[in-house]
Amino acid sequence: MNLQPSSTQRLAGDQSLPLSLPHRLATGLRSPPPPRPSNISFASSSLLHQRSLSLLRRSSPPPLLAYSGDKDFAAAESPSPAKALRRLLKSPGIHQGPACFDALSAKLVESAGFSFCFTSGFSISAARVGLPDTGLISYGEMVEQGRLITEAVSIPVIGDGDNGYGNALNVKRTVKGYIRAGFAGIILEDQVSPKACGHTQGRKTVSREEAVMRIKAAVDARKESGSDIVIVARSDSCQAISFDESLWRSRAFADAGADVLFIDALTSREEMKAFCEIAPQVPKMANMLEGGGKSPILNLLELEEIGYKIVAYPLSLLGVSIQAMKDALVAIKGGRIPPPGSMPSFEEIKEILGFNNYYEEEKRYATSKSSSGQLSSQRVSNRVYDIEKRTQDNAEQRDRSPEGPVVEVITPDVYNNSGADGSRDPFSGIWARTLRVKITGKDGFEKLDVRIPDRQNNCSRDLLADFVIVFSLVFISLDCRD
């Protein structure tokens, strides 16, 4: 029995997870695929799906993984992420959901063939702000990171809503925000604020009444939004109070309208089995905390036998990323680069990020691209003409106007002060002048026109020269400031 439906099955026609809008547009499909015949086994159906998808891929270009078009139009073509997740919960078997922490890790989960994924508050806090999962990251940061994640993939994403970031009213706002961000589901826990990772020390929970009221508020927010988001009710009371308390709360959460139940940090198979026996009509979620949490790590067959429907792997992607980056940094610091086997080639990285799909899409709009190129060229030509015209006008202006102030010294009369009879004045050794100083500014306007001294006064050469220098400097300074 195939316990892990692949993304190829989903894209080829699995009714539980219908084709994404980009793939419909690429392949020309206009309606949901027909339901799978009941007499075909899951494994043989998978093979048919894979062959069908192979034919589709050869006949049409693949869709962009990061498609994020008009959500209203997408809703008309395919069910909402929440409805897709609900179909998955009703389908046979147990389903794996690795936890992502950003858009790239979410795309890798989808490309690996998983039918859904989680966001990990632990990993997002580490990757986005570099801080421990102790309630330091805010609602706004979490919902924004979630929006980027859901826009990057077409598979349903269950978001970590922590404790709803406050009381019942805060929970309502949180649920509505996660709905707008595109989440298919939201996990809400009964911890106090600030909350922390369920597998760490010092867990504390709110009262029974407040814990149940949070779930009721979440259900009300879903109704008010006209949404079908899946509400996963988590209890940390097993560590904070007792195992029996966590069972009581889980029953109450189911009665309040929770769609999935989750008790974190169960410590044995027996506790897991007892948990899965309560409210049997409500699916149960397991959390396999890699690297040494409080819960035993079980394989899929064991978890399914116990009674779980979905299982999360919260730290795998973050953990291996940390180790790979540390190894790469050691290599770089030692004057080397990471060995080829430790990282994808550049071509593989481009394929993962969607470069090749982008180039194929670009070819489909070659005509539009050419038109826009012509318009761009025309704009550039107009811009160049404007610059050249402005430069020419400036040059003509400079030709018409002097570069700086022009100082003209005009001395029309030079004479000696002798009497009519030829006798000399006591000051006959001093030259008498009428000195005219004219200053024209760089704008072409006359700034000064003065005579030094007038004809009735006498000045020595040195004094006249001083007058010229002083007046010139003063008016040149004024003209420059203008």
UniProtKB/TrEMBL annotation:
InterPro entries: ICL/PEPM, Pyrv/PenolPyrv_kinase-like_dom, Pyrv_kinase-like_dom_sf. Residues 1-38 are annotated as: Disordered. It comes from the Eukaryota. Pfam families: PEP_mutase (PF13714). GO terms for molecular function: isocitrate lyase activity. Residues 1-10 have a biased composition (Polar residues). It catalyses: D-threo-isocitrate = glyoxylate + succinate. This is Isocitrate lyase. It comes from Ficus carica.
